[in-house]
Amino acid sequence: MGNLRNPWVLLGILSLSLIPNLVQAEVGSPYAHTCRNKTCVKVERTKLRADETPLSLDVCKLNCNALGALWPKPTGKVELGQEFLSFYPQNVIFRNASAASVEVKATLDEAVKIFREYLLMYHPDYKRDGVSPFPENKEGDNIAQNSLVIDIGTVWDVKNVVLNVDESYVLSLESNNQRNSVSTSIVANTYFGARNALETLSQLIAYDDETNSLKILDRATISDGPVFAYRGVLIDTSRNFIPVESLKRVIDGLSYNKLNMLHWHITDTHSFPFYSKSVPEMTKYGAYSSRKIYSVEEATELVEYARVRGVKIVAEFDAPAHAGNGWEWGPAAGKGEMALCINKEPWSSYCVEPPCGQLNPANENMYQVLGKIYKDLLDIFDNELFHMGGDEVKLDCWLENAEITDYLKKKGKNNTQETLIELWGEFQSKAYNLVKDNQQVKANNVTAIMWTSELASIEHAVQYLPANNYVVQIWTTAQDPVIPFLIKNNYKTIFSNYDAWYLDCGFGAWIGEGNNWCSPYKGWQKVYENSPLQLLSPALTPEEIDAAYKNGQILGGEAPLWAEQVDELTLEGKLFPRLSALAERLWSNPDTNWYAAESRIVQSRHRHVQRGLRPDRLQPEWCHQNEELCYG
Amino acid sequence: MGNLRNPWVLLGILSLSLIPNLVQAEVGSPYAHTCRNKTCVKVERTKLRADETPLSLDVCKLNCNALGALWPKPTGKVELGQEFLSFYPQNVIFRNASAASVEVKATLDEAVKIFREYLLMYHPDYKRDGVSPFPENKEGDNIAQNSLVIDIGTVWDVKNVVLNVDESYVLSLESNNQRNSVSTSIVANTYFGARNALETLSQLIAYDDETNSLKILDRATISDGPVFAYRGVLIDTSRNFIPVESLKRVIDGLSYNKLNMLHWHITDTHSFPFYSKSVPEMTKYGAYSSRKIYSVEEATELVEYARVRGVKIVAEFDAPAHAGNGWEWGPAAGKGEMALCINKEPWSSYCVEPPCGQLNPANENMYQVLGKIYKDLLDIFDNELFHMGGDEVKLDCWLENAEITDYLKKKGKNNTQETLIELWGEFQSKAYNLVKDNQQVKANNVTAIMWTSELASIEHAVQYLPANNYVVQIWTTAQDPVIPFLIKNNYKTIFSNYDAWYLDCGFGAWIGEGNNWCSPYKGWQKVYENSPLQLLSPALTPEEIDAAYKNGQILGGEAPLWAEQVDELTLEGKLFPRLSALAERLWSNPDTNWYAAESRIVQSRHRHVQRGLRPDRLQPEWCHQNEELCYG
Questions:
Q1: How far apart are CA A190 and CA A108, in angstroms?
Q2: In sequence order, what E strands does A189-300 have?
């Protein structure tokens, strides 16, 4: 891991002219930063030693310690140069890969365009209008005479993020003998590795207010690749609608952290915002309003937006529970109901939270509609991974229903808890086949993801959910015995244990009073230290854990942000910077604890702010300016 | 309380032409809202009864229950009409008070301008550019022919929010016999009462998507006034800087809730962002950067911005602790240090959180500078209330200092805990006199506010903090025995007990791991039910509590949002809608619990969103659309 598996593609050559560091006059503050003992310290300018240059904090952070401002930390070799070189962003020249396909060339164009805007964003006066706040090129300004050239070589034609796609890269920076140019070489096997390299490159550059220019390290070598293949977040757009523009901003944030999966919990009992072109009744009845619908065009555009940023959108259609509003129309009289218990009262008898709703597994029309919805989803979203939900079925919703009782009676069965579990298993089997039947890309094998549940349990999983067909996403606590059970029974797993990775915990209750069910709030430190591999110990031996990892059974993890108490107004602050902590756990799987990452995550969060995201604040700015002094 | 004390000023006549309710064709959704049994229910349009009109949710909320969409709930009579009348915002005509002073007229102009924009904001297509998204006036459109006239009568010339300023009003709406106009009469004694009436009036109006117009109640009578005089929030701009534009948005939010105090904790040990024109060294050394300074012009403009919105800015200059960065320059060699322990390590020995810093009470130069800063603050901010801080002095910072030891020795005293308390008392006395000496408006008596502390304690308060000079702000828990002590000893009090009203609690720790010190998060329900009067029981008898209230000793309360983990990016979501819960507690002091207020606070929060604020989400939208069904 972390080493380039097949580093034969030379992706980019990046060269820029350099000038020696300028020591400028004071810019108002009596203080500047400088690097001492691998720490950026704030000192009075008059007390700088003769060999010390006054630096902006951002520039100091680039290389003051062994990992600089890199996030997540690379898994291979990291060597960072000790000198800085100045340039302006307008002097970046990009030459696309001559040997790549038109499609990959276009995607690389996009990635470099995004990279270029990051450089503008580092300037504190950038207005997000595309207009550069840096000095224009003028004669007599040495910095302005430098240029930065990015040459892209050939790239494998991997169109989409797929599980275990090669995301690794080697990034090298080197300055020439005259110290007036630097070459950046990016070696990667896929577009996604190259995009990751560009993200890392952007973390080797910072704005310097001493010279009003950008500074880049004069040399560096970084060899990097992820530990876990699946690194994601869950966004829920059913409890509360989240506009597409906000989802794009979330994807931006994922891309800053090399997170690669957006699990879109698009529907639930509360509302049905996905416009199904085959079944427009779903949004007509189920959307909160006509303004709160995702059109086919919007969803399609979002998939492409994510792809360019190295992110796969994994759509979830949760069933048979967590389906209600939107299902109340049809079928014709006498043919029963497609979903039961919709908004039924008292809700606590029929579901885990209001409003209730559960598909009717005895209703033939439901399966027809379900198949159409699956097809519409699979036409837009990824065909490799598809989330089928499967959590929190409340059998009592089915228990009293005449249609179900009749259905079972015809099979010679009574309506009991155990026959209802069988019925659930039957539903799941039929639904799985509908997914398979309606997948767009027949060449790929759709892998279904299911939540841990009564069906995905020690008692029932092997019977109803063949390990070849299903990935199980674990949302219970780290101590749940189902976790080692699943590994021992050959299931692939995604970790989302709520005691560390549920980002919606810790706020006031929305049902009743006090704090919400999974309180307390999970701080970034807790998120950071939740290691899937460690969770398997001691139930599994180190050898068993290693074998399961190598066998691809521990795909990675995902932090859900359930949206009962979230909408676009506070979404970003609840996600970030905690998703950064998740990202380093899953990309790097560090063997150091949160404390070793603290000053880097604070700097990384600052970079998120520069790029226009709205992350929560972890500390006073004093702690940022005075590294390591806000210790416990 | 709640009845107009002297309702002799007729403030406004508001008349608008009316048309009968239009029942429009379906607008896409099969559902509409209607009012049944005092609850807004979502029903299929085809199932509406003959006597029911399909309503937008916002219109339904206006009068479906006895309190409609009013927040905070009025303290006097509330009568709401059962019919709605349509109008467009462009047809509002305002005639200013002929008898009022030029200054009051100008302020009323501003208040009506703000009110006019609220009307535009209610339209979901409003782009916040001043351009109305409502239909233009056209012949044949009955709604467009109606007009709304606001006539303002005379108003007392009360320039600023002062403690116990009359904020009450009586608001009456009446439609004429032809049902094509309504008159709104606002009766109040001061500008601030009139502004409150306009806020209430705006809560009787909603956008109706059935007719693409605004609807207003055809008649109403509301008599209203606050229970507590002091209703505020604390904003801290030292731990993290908050731009002026964000502070304006907070003030907007206060005005929606009839909160009247913005306690600005402007400086602390971390940074000194207030530009003191007499002592520019303070920001030069103490600001986080030259971009993170409040200029005199900005602060002055903010005071006026707040005044127009019924809010007083109470400036705090915390001392002698919570003062550090910014104080490190001068005086000349041999004259000691103005502040001690600045950024001193290990911080836990010298202060409660990093970085340390405490003024040096033995340093004469410090007092000179302190006097200048007080003058600069009092030139800009309110001269009636001034917060002197006084919390969390750590005597150990002073204990080892030679300057202090020498100073005490000259007075024949040893350097002990008790003599240091005396020294603190001496500092406070000198500082108080400096405030008095430097107040701008000599006619007013500056009332100093102090936090509960070792000085404001059962042991020391009477000796060092005369009850005539000081208001004590209580930040400890509801059980602190100092609370009844202070009341019994004639102190005026402001309640901010952290166990209910600290809005920064419950997030991840910023020192060490786990959750922050005052966890858990205080949900709006907890905020709502924290009653200052109830907190005094059983330590005081009901008669004693009543006497203390009538004697003006229970000024009100304030929710602090300390900013260690807050900046402008997540500020609003941490403040709102919890400040709405605080507002109803302090304006109305309801004898009902949070549950009775739930659907109203959700609607009130929705109105905040319409006005462009970024409050946190309390519930799924389903609960908003399906009132009373998300019960516990």
A1: 11
A2: 205-208, 213-217, 220-224, 230-236, 261-265
With residue A246 as reference, give the H or E element that holds it.
Answer: helix A244-256
Q: How far is Cα A110 from Cα B613, in angstroms, rounded to an integer? A: 34
- The confidence band for B444, taking pLDDT boundaries of 50, 70 and 90, is low
| B492-502 per-position pLDDT tens digit | 999 999 999 99
Least confident of A3-7, A405-409, B68-72, B123-127: A3-7
Instruction: Work out the minimum CA distance from B548 to partner chain A, whole angstroms.
Output: 31
Mean pLDDT of all residues in B69-88: 95
Report CA Rg, chain B.
26
Residue whose structure tokens are 């506010």: B449
ipTM at complex level: 0.94
Angle at CA of residue A68, ends A64 and A72, nearest 5°: 160
How much is the pLDDT for B440? 66
Is some CB atom of chain B closer than 8 A to the CB atom of A23? no
3-class secondary structure per residue, B79-105: EECCCEEEECHHHEEEECCCCCCHHHH
Q: pLDDT by residue (tens digit) across B326-363?
A: 999 987 567 789 999 999 999 999 999 999 999 999 99
- Strands (DSSP E) contained in B143-204 are 148-152, 169-175, 182-188
Percent of chain A whose pLDDT exceeds 70: 92
> How far is it, in rounded angstroms, from Cα B461 to Cα B455?
6
Q: How far apart are CA A436 and CA A447, in angstroms?
A: 9
How far is it, in rounded angstroms, from Cα B154 to Cα B187?
Answer: 10
Give per-residue pLDDT as tens, A85-135.
899 999 887 877 667 788 888 999 999 999 999 999 999 999 999 999 999
- The pLDDT score that the predictor gives to residue B189 is 87
Window 598-617 of B: residues touching A by CB (8 A cutoff) are 609, 614-617
Q: Tokens in use for B388?
A: 């002197």
From CA B2, how far away is CA B544, in angstroms rounded? 22
What are the angstrom distances between the C-alpha of B55 and each of A121, A353, B32, B390? 46, 27, 6, 54
User: Using CB atoms within 10 A of its CB, is residue B217 exposed (0-12), middle (13-18) or buried (19+)?
Assistant: buried
**Number of H helices and number of E strands within chain A?**
20, 22
Distance CA A578, CA B570 (A): 14
Nearest chain A residue to B242 by CA distance is: A621
By the 8 A CB rule, do B192 and B104 touch?
no
CB contacts of B619 in chain A (<8 Å) are 510, 564-565
Contacts with B483 (C-beta within 8 Å, 6 or more apart), sequence order: B474, B493, B535, B536, B539
- The angle subtended at Cα A500 by Cα A495 and Cα A506, nearest 5°, is 135
- Cβ–Cβ < 8 Å for B569, A616: yes
CB B319 within 8 A of CB B389: yes
pLDDT at A544 over 60: yes
DSSP state of B145: G
Question: Model confidence over A249-278: pLDDT tens digits?
Answer: 999 999 999 999 999 999 999 999 999 999
Is A461 in contact with A473 (CB distance < 8 Å)? no
Q: B247, B302 in Cβ contact below 8 A?
A: yes
Q: How many residues does chain A have?
A: 632
Q: Which of A285, A564, A629 sits opposite B354 (nearest CB)?
A: A629
- Our CA angle for A484, A488, A489, nearest 5°, is 115
User: pTM of this prediction?
Assistant: 0.95
Chain A hits for B514, CB-CB cut-off 8 Å, are: 523, 525-526
CA–CA distances in Å: residue A592 to residues A226, A531, A589: 17, 11, 9
What residue type is A338 in one-letter code? M
